[in-house]
Design goal:
Elements (H helix, E strand, L loop, with lengths): L10 E5 L3 E8 L4 E2 L4 E4 L6 H13 L10 E5 L3 E2 L2 E2 L14 H9 L3 E5 H12 L8 E7 L3 E7 L2 E3 L8 E2 L2 E2 H5 L1 H6 L4 H19 L3 E5 L6 H4 L9 E3 L6 H10 L4
Parallel strand pairs: 1-5, 5-8, 9-14, 14-15
Antiparallel strand pairs: 1-2, 2-3, 2-4, 6-7, 9-10, 10-11, 12-13
Bound molecules: beta-D-glucopyranose.
Length: 255
């Protein structure tokens, strides 16, 4: 049993292309403190439409009291709460002060960060990279490619390594999981593209460990052994919980 009262549990919200998911997080356990709720992402997913969904989600979470801080992941660059890019989301996000918008809409203290940065914080604190010193690069393979650079537990935000150029293309347009699906690539063909990608990351950053996240990481056994790399590369552990847990960590100021 944790000694925290339910009101102390920070809430994480994961804003993704298809669903917006939220849960209260027990930071002592590194896990959800109650049920996760999910609402379909509105279309178009403008900042105001998404803020309205957050209000609904928060009302349905009994475990996070009204005083609990809220962390939110956004699939774009976020600097001091302001969204700076929108590669795979509504362009209305660019320039939006999301901290301010969500704090006003929900009446809670809200802090926003990049989705892959949230996953990185969670994997380093509670997941696959727990206890790892030096430089960890956490990547998420989904609609795009997200990345987090964490050095000795400290996040360097907004690394955006999905936008590195490989073989003359933006990496995420060649090697994201959505590309594997749309081009119907075999695991072996995809692993070749991932090898080019991760070799670039290795050359540029000399990481001590690379963690591969995103929903497809549950199939890691089908492709990771074919990725040729000198750096240890391992699947993420927290899978679809990483964004929510990382957002809650960030909201609670524990990152
Ligand atoms: C965005 C990143 C995001 C990643 C994963 C990329 O297209 O530029 O900010 O982390 O997708 O969602």
């Amino acid at each position: 049993m944790s000694s925290e009262s339910p009101d102390d549990h920070p809430i994480g919200i994961d804003f993704g292309g298809s669903g917006i998911k939220a849960a209260a997080v027990d930071l002592a356990a590194g896990d959800f403190a109650g049920e996760r709720t999910r609402i379909k992402t509105p279309d178009p997913a403008t900042p105001d439409a998404v803020a309205a969904v957050f209000v609904e989600l928060l009302a349905s979470l009994p475990e996070g009291g009204a005083g609990a801080p809220v962390g939110v992941t956004v699939p774009g660059i976020v600097r001091r709460g302001v969204v700076g890019s929108a590669a795979n989301i509504d362009h209305g996000w660019i320039g939006t002060d999301a901290d301010e918008l969500f704090t006003r809409a929900t009446g809670r203290s809200v802090r926003v960060l990049n989705d892959a940065d949230a996953a990185g914080l969670a994997e380093v604190r509670f997941g696959a990279a727990r206890g790892q010193t030096g430089l960890v690069v956490v990547t998420t393979l989904g609609t795009g490619i997200g990345s987090a650079l964490v050095h000795d537990g400290v996040l360097v935000p907004n690394s955006e390594l999905g936008h590195l150029e490989i073989d003359g293309h933006v990496a995420e347009k060649r090697a994201a999981n959505s590309v594997r699906e749309s081009e119907e690539l075999s695991w072996a063909k995809w692993a070749k593209r991932l090898t080019s990608y991760y070799q670039s990351v290795e050359r540029l950053f000399s990481p001590d460990l690379i963690v591969v996240g995103g929903g497809v990481s549950k199939h890691a056994a089908s492709f990771l052994p074919m990725v040729e790399l000198d750096t240890p590369i391992i699947p993420a552990l927290l899978l679809n919980k990483a964004g929510i847990i990382g957002a809650a960590l960030y909201a609670a100021g524990e990152s």
